[in-house]
User: Which sequence fits this backbone?
DNA sequence: CTGTTAGCGCCTTCAG
DNA sequence: CTGAAGGCGCTAACAG
């Protein structure tokens, strides 16, 4: 099939026997002007006959405004991010905007690049999900990129760790982890291990720090050898638990800083021929919907990821507002994975 | 902070004391022309000083080609789709394209609308994941929308069920389900139930049909009362298994047409105070990565979703090619959920 | 190698 | 209520 050249609005206008301006007003109803019914009819028919479709790019250019928003995540395949993405997409759809999805693949440099890419596309707003990685350099570059986008009228919102002066939906990671620690303590557990995630990952850091500080206040601090770093993934959880296996006799519960890691940790326990929670309890963080049916049920901190995504988009679009930070608190969910033997 | 007006390429040109064209060539290197080093240097410096960023929309318009592709899924929060999305995004990124994500929310009408939306945005290619729903009307509308996009030079590829004349990565749903049936038969199971999904859902239909046909060939057809329709979700699986509970004594294994449904089905078994696989075996389809660690391990048909997403994008971008259909076969994975008691 | 000049497709004042 | 004309920011012939 030959690539026919697309019909343009002038083609439609000519076909309908009206001017370009009238055709434009008929098809995309101007805010102020109105078109006589019969003319509008003619235009619409002509457009249908020609199979005309407006060019969103040209419209964006003429109007000086696009109809899309950007979403930056580390990895869509991770249920944490895909749930957030669902929230952002739904909220965007509600206001007639399309979502451009970009993945950092856990590379902080790409995060900056993607913000710039999205800025180039003149996204109306950019939502950055996913914990900031990298050191101060990256944070500064990111701040600059964000500032550039905002200065020229684009909105931005962060999910997770806030950054100075930028609207954000912040998870109370340390508070949630602390609440989890207290709940486990209330349930009678006393000896804790932690699979802590990467040292340079802020979310991981806040979660493990909040957990350990709460323990300290309760007078049952986790021993240093019971706190192991790991990758921020299922496999990281598996490896972390494997490292803790020799100490299992000294532990009641191991806290992995994400559900995905906790699942990996549970697999490691099973592969060692042991049982959760009989030999050791396991707790996670996030309450990923897809994982709510695993057995034993995973004790965790529920985070309303979908709502967070939706709210972040709204924050990002509220251009006039002052930078605003909404803090979302998680809710401890005790399940069988930490039942006392 | 005031919304400063964005610097344009002419601002940069003026600042650098060169012509618009030179600035353009210096910044976005023209394929044919080249710019003297010192001039290019001046331009780049001016651009940096002004914090100039090219406007992707304007470039798209001038070049007559955008740098984005569209992806249509039912629901990104569903791990099936998020894994596909990861594949599409990675492949797009490799060739420097951005992905616009659109969700049908399981509404076939929206599917058509989204194709049109993406066409309006002049997406270089559109990947449609997710089984076609709805009847012949919708299929026809969709075919028309797709044809419109292709006629004007855009690529399209489907994932799942093919449509006549459209490139596709087709899952061999019925073949995979048949292989599963044979594998379960080989393992000694004889009495099967099926949680079949929605009647109008093609993927679900092919999977259950393939499964049942293979059983028939093996001489052990599933009784009609052991085949229950359901929603295409975790809750659908739960409800389906609940409906089968009264018949559990007559069944060795229940096949749910997706892993997510299988997980719901397993939860229903547990909630009834029974055990998988002792009281009944459960099998799914997809081999969702996030669910690979559940216990008992879920017997399923592995589908390389990520690769499928990547390949679909490549098919969609290969505009010159003949309509081509790639069939991907699943691989049966037997795990403990169907271990014989 | 550089500059000038048309558009790309559409919206939007501004006249009529 | 309609039409003509300018411009959005950039690229790509076309001259110089």
Assistant:
């Amino acid at each position: 099939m030959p690539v026919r050249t697309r019909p343009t609005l002038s083609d439609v206008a000519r076909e309908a026997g009206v001017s370009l301006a009238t055709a434009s007003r008929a098809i995309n109803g101007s805010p102020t002007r109105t078109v006589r019914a019969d003319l509008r009819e003619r235009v619409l028919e002509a457009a249908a006959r020609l199979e005309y479709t407006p060019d969103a790019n040209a419209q964006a250019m003429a109007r000086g405004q696009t109809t899309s928003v950007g979403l930056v995540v580390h990895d869509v395949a991770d249920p944490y991010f895909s749930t957030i993405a669902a929230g952002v997409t739904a909220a965007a759809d509600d206001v007639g905007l399309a979502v451009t999805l970009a993945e950092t693949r856990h590379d902080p440099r790409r995060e900056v690049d993607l913000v710039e890419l999205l800025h180039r596309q003149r996204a109306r707003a950019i939502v950055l999900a996913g914990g900031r990685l990298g050191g101060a350099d990256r944070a500064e570059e990111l701040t600059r990129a964000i500032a550039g986008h905002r200065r020229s009228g684009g909105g931005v919102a962060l999910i997770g760790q806030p950054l100075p002066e930028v609207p954000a939906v912040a998870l109370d990671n340390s508070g949630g982890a602390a609440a989890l620690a207290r709940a486990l303590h209330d349930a009678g557990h006393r000896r804790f291990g932690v699979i802590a995630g990467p040292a340079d990952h802020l979310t991981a850091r806040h979660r493990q720090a909040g957990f350990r500080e709460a323990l300290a206040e309760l007078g049952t601090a986790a021993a240093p050898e019971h706190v192991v770093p790991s990758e921020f993934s299922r496999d990281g959880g598996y490896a972390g638990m494997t490292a803790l296996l020799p100490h299992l006799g000294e532990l009641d519960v191991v806290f992995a800083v994400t559900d995905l890691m906790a699942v990996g940790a549970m697999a490691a326990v099973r592969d060692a021929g042991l049982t959760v929670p009989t030999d050791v309890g396991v707790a996670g963080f996030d309450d990923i919907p897809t994982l709510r049916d695993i057995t034993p049920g995973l004790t965790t901190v529920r985070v309303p990821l979908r709502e967070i995504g939706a709210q972040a988009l709204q924050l990002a679009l509220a251009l006039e507002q002052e930078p605003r930070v909404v803090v979302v608190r998680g809710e401890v969910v005790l399940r069988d994975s930490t039942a006392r033997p």
Summary: The radius of gyration of chain A is 26 Å.
